[in-house]
Design goal:
This protein is of the alpha+beta class. The chain is built from six helices and eight strands; from the N terminus they run ββαααβββαβαββα. An eight-stranded mixed β-sheet has the order 1-2-3-4-5-6-8-7, sandwiched between helices. Helix 1 packs across helix 3 and helix 4 crosses helix 5 (about 130-140). It starts with a strand and ends with a helix.
């Protein structure tokens, strides 16, 4: 799996040595409550199980690190469908790093990699209704809302209503162009 860089971040494959840091950051109730699958509390054994299952699930998990610091601050993961053309994206960020634009930067870079290097044709994502920051992350990366759905959220105690998002190469390119024009 490739290492990916942005202006401020290095996205590298998650490694076994990241497990304690993942358990500490993702185990924060404020982080876990925004996800379908992260339990709270989150144990090192649970993170180890997730890490060891990555290949079987066709999941490409990138550790988000700040270039100058090298410490993991979050994860972006693509789970590729068996046909190889589609994927689902999921992500979380340590609470101390919220509101700094890191996740938008990381997701845009992973999506660019997915459509470019990995040759995917589409990427899906779900966001719990009310998680406006995550909606913003996806919109900046060219995702469009397809609708609403009830999604299983076992770590949240049952089903929850979610917004369903979808991105294609074309929608990602439009978002990237719009952002580039906005900077000029």
């Amino acid at each position: 799996m490739a290492e990916l860089a942005t202006e401020r971040l290095l996205l590298r494959p998650v490694v076994r040595e990241d497990i304690p840091r993942i358990a500490a950051l993702a185990g924060d109730a404020r982080v876990a409550e925004t996800t379908r699958s992260l339990p709270h509390p989150l144990t090192i054994a649970q993170v180890t199980g997730w890490f060891e299952s990555l290949p079987a699930r066709r999941e490409h998990a990138f550790a988000i690190t700040i270039k100058e610091e090298a410490a993991l601050i979050g994860v972006v993961a693509l789970t590729v469908a068996p046909d190889g053309g589609k994927a689902e994206i999921g992500y979380w960020l340590g609470h101390d790093h919220w509101g700094k634009g890191y996740m938008s930067e990381a997701v845009r870079r992973v999506v660019r990699h997915a459509f470019g290097d990995m040759k995917l044709t589409s990427i899906g994502a779900d966001v719990f209704v009310g998680n406006d920051r995550s909606v913003g992350v996806l919109v900046k990366a060219g995702f469009d809302v397809e609708g609403r759905a009830t999604r299983p959220a076992p770590a949240r105690g049952g089903d929850r209503e979610a917004l369903v998002f979808h991105a294609t190469r074309a929608s990602f390119a439009r978002a990237a162009l719009s952002q580039a024009v906005g900077r000029e």
